[in-house]
Design brief:
By secondary structure, the protein is of the alpha/beta class. It is built from 19 helices and 21 strands. The chain folds into two domains: 232 residues, ATPase, nucleotide binding domain (Nucleotidyltransferase, domain 5, 2-Layer Sandwich); 230 residues, Nucleotidyltransferase, domain 5 (2-Layer Sandwich). A hairpin with a 2-residue loop joins strand 4 and strand 5.
Length: 498
């Protein structure tokens, strides 16, 4: 790496909050400093859940000003990553048609049946390799077609969420590879938007922009924005713009294929890196997915509803007058009865309930289990159920890929949950390496650095992280008890299909 002292800014927008993280190279060290954080939750208006993207853009511009005050006028690169599947529509003047709709909005109800009427489920999977989730971009777009939305009639350009913010910054409209692949509208074998699916769904092909690779320099930040922030001219770079792709880019794994990753946060994403997508009937049956990664790799993975359940329990309890930090909840769980209830984190009951504790109680009654009695038991049941779900998914990935996975790397904010890390090692029976917790920001910055010539390759970036980032290893223990719990969970969850 050259030019120590380079400075980059990573914007990482998630489902709960957005952050601006400054990165400075010093003596082959990456020093990160969060300089701004702001909420990104949904805004409900007349029964529809929206993203307030104009407020988010204002927050990004505020972060640029805060950066300049803290570090001065020089900034070598800006990169934006966000959650997946959602999008904005621009009209012929380049203005927003409407605020983008949140993926948890109800507009996609019934869209699976409509999509499969137009093209068989097996054919959609064969052409995309993407798992079926009710909020995928495909079904959001199809809802506009079915309902003859005037938004679609006005649309001239579709921009996925990170590309929208890049457009606000530069005026350049395109889609980045790692994000485009998540839409279930991209054909990874042909390397382009799927003409067949778009035609079958009657979604206009003309609104879909050019797809660019991670590391593409999009252009300079608009002079007016730079001037208002107090910055010299700065490059806007497309990193791996899907937040999970950025997180996986920062997995500090050594070369080889005997490891898997888990990006842990609101969602848990478990998978492996592959040079080509894995698309066959077994993958379809198990509902795994093939999403783009850095260096034209693919993330063969499974989406698992992660710490969302804990977040929603915390939010509900706060409404009831019980204020907990996440550390408080983890401590309560650590001192609570083990295996009080076995949950399926991916049950649709938990997608967006009014009350997560009530949904957990309903699930327990439906499966003949006793409802957890304390807040600690609720949280412990979620964490244990996540660990057991991780085992189930990892077993499937091993069977399909033929890989002997000996280590699991957990990255992202959830890697700070030491109790869940230990549960995961116990359930899987292999070592778990936790860290970095700032994987998404680090992966964002690594790709920017490669684009600017400050890193020679992705492999060099991972080696740098192995040498400089604090990691913690959790060894498995009491695996026999977890083997027993895994069998008990399977029997309990079978009742949901009876």
């Amino acid at each position: 790496m050259t030019n120590a002292g380079k400075r980059f800014l990573a914007f990482d927008l998630g489902a709960e909050s957005g952050r601006a993280v400054a990165a400075v190279w010093r003596d082959r060290q990456i020093e990160l400093e969060e300089i701004h954080r702001f909420p990104t939750g949904a805004t409900e208006i007349l029964g529809t859940l929206y993203w307030d993207v104009l407020a988010f853009h204002r927050a990004l511009c505020d972060a640029l000003t805060l950066y300049a005050r803290r570090f001065g006028r020089r900034l070598d690169g800006i990169g934006v990553d966000t959650w997946g599947v959602d999008f904005a529509l621009l009209d012929r003047t380049g203005a927003l048609v409407a605020n983008p709709v949140h993926y948890r909005d109800a507009r996609t109800e019934g869209m699976w049946d409509e999509a499969f009427r137009r093209m068989p489920r097996e054919e959609i999977f064969r052409r995309t390799g993407i798992q079926f989730m009710p909020f995928n971009t495909l079904y959001q777009m199809l809802s506009l077609v079915v309902n003859r939305s005037p938004w679609l009639e006005s649309a001239r350009t579709l921009l996925l969420m990170p590309s929208l913010f890049n457009y606000f910054f530069t005026g350049v409209a395109n889609a980045e590879f790692t994000h485009a692949t998540t839409t279930q509208l991209y054909d990874p074998r042909e390397g382009k938007w799927s003409e067949a699916i778009l035609a079958a769904m009657e979604i206009p092909r003309a609104i879909f922009p050019e797809i660019v690779a991670p590391g593409t320099i999009l252009g300079p930040l608009r002079p007016r924005i730079a001037d208002e922030a107090g910055l010299d001219p700065v490059r806007v770079i497309a990193p791996a713009t899907h937040d999970t792709a950025s997180a996986v880019a920062a997995v500090p794994a050594a070369p080889g294929d005997d490891w898997a990753y888990l990006s842990s946060g609101t969602w848990s994403l478990m998978g492996i890196e592959t040079p080509e997508p894995i698309i066959n009937n077994t993958v379809l049956r198990e509902n795994l997915t093939n999403e783009g990664g850095v260096g034209r790799t693919f993330r063969f993975l499974k989406n698992i509803s992660g710490l969302w359940m804990v977040q929603e329990c915390r939010r509900r309890w706060a409404k009831e007058g019980h204020e907990y930090s996440y550390d408080d909840l983890t401590q309560l769980a650590g001192h609570s009865r083990s295996f009080a209830a076995y949950l399926d984190p991916d049950d649709l009951l938990f997608l967006n309930p009014d009350s997560m504790p009530a949904a957990i109680a309903e699930f327990c009654r439906r499966t003949g289990q006793r409802v957890p009695e304390t807040h600690g038991e609720f949280v412990r049941s979620v964490l244990e159920s996540l660990a057991l779900r991780y085992r189930e998914v990892l077993d499937t990935i091993r069977q399909i890929s033929g890989r002997m996975i000996r280590t699991l790397h957990i990255v992202g904010g959830g890697s700070r949950n030491r109790l869940l890390n230990q549960f995961t090692a116990d359930a899987l029976g292999i070592p778990v390496v936790a860290g970095p917790s700032e994987a998404t920001a680090l992966g964002n910055v690594l790709v920017q650095a490669i684009a600017c010539g400050d890193l020679a390759s992705h492999a060099e970036g991972r080696a740098l992280l192995r040498a400089t980032v604090a990691l913690e290893t959790f060894e498995p223990r009491d695996t026999a008890r977890w083997d027993e719990a895994f069998a008990q969970r399977r029997a309990v969850l079978a009742r949901t299909r009876e």
